[in-house]
Specification:
The protein has a single domain, classed as MetI-like (MetI-like fold). It contains 13 helices and no strands. It has helices spanning 9-12, 33-43, 45-62, 64-71, 112-148, 150-164, 168-186, 192-222, 226-233, 238-246, 251-274, 286-293, 301-329. The chain is globular, with a radius of gyration of 25 Å. The chain starts with 8 loop residues before the first helix and ends in a 6-residue tail after the last helix. Mean pLDDT is 80; it is low at 1-22.
Length: 335
């Protein structure tokens, strides 16, 4: 019996072949780009595991009150009877027990697990809002510059170069207090609410130029494709071409950008809160917890290790998931 030659791996990776012997015929069913990307992503075990961890962390953050009650912990309860005169938990390993899985915070006696759950809500809120605003500004300006080119592209390009030349970290440090006070004077928000608005605006303001450059380069390539030329020949308006033809073709870099910028903004919020420029107590974020843990790192290292380890784990998981998505969505990736 003759054995059919096996096709090359590169050919198999580009089309889903479902073969069945029906009257000596082989039926081959093609796969969409989405199915190909999903198959590539599933083969990356590290990326799948990182994506699962990222989803679990997001669910825990969004449902912090529910999970806190489920675990039997309260972020506002002061367990002062479990602290000594210096504020250090009297129980072994920082008070880690079934009642307090991550132990107690020195000085206040609050449950560390509850503080991490509730603190992640503010950290993720800043990261998600900053990512969304950066995505909107960078996507619109990148498409406009790449599609219209000429004077429009030149103007957007010079503004982008100007913003990229600014030391964003020092600008945020220098303008933190005056801008927060100005936001409070407008009556839009007070206290930590004004600080959240400040962080979202400034992180997005200095973040969109990087994404805009990526979208511009993709748009320059897409505008020369046949489907855009056909739409122009049929008399389609520029707005229709941008929103109906170009925008749906840019979902791959958008997904990758979101998966990689979210952990970046999460870490940035923690850094600014750690330095006292972001959210302030009595609110709790991962940056504030990390800042408090440094005061007890010599006598209670578990507090620092849990606070820092949680942040590192989440940022690493999102970055690994983003790398896996980038490899899966890149048509030039060969495995």
């Amino acid at each position: 019996m003759a054995i059919a030659a096996r096709p090359k791996r590169s050919t198999i990776s580009r089309s889903k072949q479902r073969a069945s012997a029906q009257g000596g015929k082989v039926v081959v069913t093609g796969r969409s780009p989405r199915e190909i990307a999903w198959a590539r992503f599933k083969r990356n075990r590290i990326g799948v595991f990182a994506a699962i961890v990222s989803i679990i962390v997001l669910v825990l953050s969004l449902g912090a009150p529910l999970f806190a009650r489920l675990f039997g912990v309260n972020p506002n309860t002061l367990n002062l009877n479990h602290l000594d005169v210096s504020g250090i938990p009297t129980q072994a390993h920082g008070g880690i027990s079934l009642s307090h899985p991550f132990g107690l915070i020195p000085g206040t006696g609050r449950d560390l697990l509850a503080q991490l759950l509730y603190g992640s809500r503010i950290s993720f809120m800043v990261a998600i809002l900053s990512t969304g605003l950066t995505l909107f500004i960078g996507l619109m300006l990148g498409i406009m510059g790449g599609y219209f080119r000429g004077r429009v592209d030149s103007t957007i390009g010079r503004v982008t170069d100007f913003l990229l030349s600014f030391p964003s970290f020092f600008m945020i440090v220098a303008l933190s207090e005056p801008m927060v006070k100005r936001i409070e004077k407008t009556g839009v928000a007070q206290g930590n609410g004004a600080r959240v608005i400040f962080l979202v605006i400034f992180l997005s303001f200095f973040g969109w130029p990087y994404f805009s450059r990526i979208i511009r380069s993709q748009t320059l390539s897409l505008r020369e494709r046949d489907f855009v030329t056909a739409a122009q020949a049929m008399g389609a308006s520029s707005s229709r071409i941008i929103f109906k033809e170009l925008l749906p073709s840019l979902w791959a870099p958008v997904i990758v950008f979101v998966s990689l910028s979210l952990p970046g903004y999460l870490a940035a919020e923690s850094v600014y809160s750690f330095l006292g420029l972001g959210i302030q107590p009595p609110a709790s974020t991962w940056g504030i917890l990390l800042s408090n843990s440094t005061r007890f790192v010599t006598v209670f290292p578990q507090f620092f290790l849990i606070a820092a380890g949680s942040l590192v784990l989440v940022v690493l998981a999102f970055n690994l998931a983003g790398d896996a998505l980038r490899d899966a969505l890149d048509p030039r990736t060969e495995r």
